[in-house]
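Researcher: I'd like a structural prediction for the single chain below. Treat it as a standalone chain; there are no partners to consider.
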Amino acid sequence: MLLTEGDISRIIEMAWEDRTPFEAIKHQFGLGQAEVIVLMRQQLKSGAFISWRKRTRGQQTKHAALRSSAVNRHCSSFQHKQVRP
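Model: Treating it as a single chain, here is the predicted structure.
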């Protein structure tokens, strides 16, 4: 699958979001966790990549199987709001 710059940008954004599980990225873009890690390693500066890995390693909200049933959405409540004129 060929990813556009926009796709890569969105995947990075989703990977940084605490509530977006890797399974959501897999569903939308076809990239599994290992592939997202490779993409992040390629696209981020080394310090940012290390920080991201520390944040996501073992984080329950990044893995659907580990998530609490109380977490029923994958993005924050303020994301995707409509801007009013």
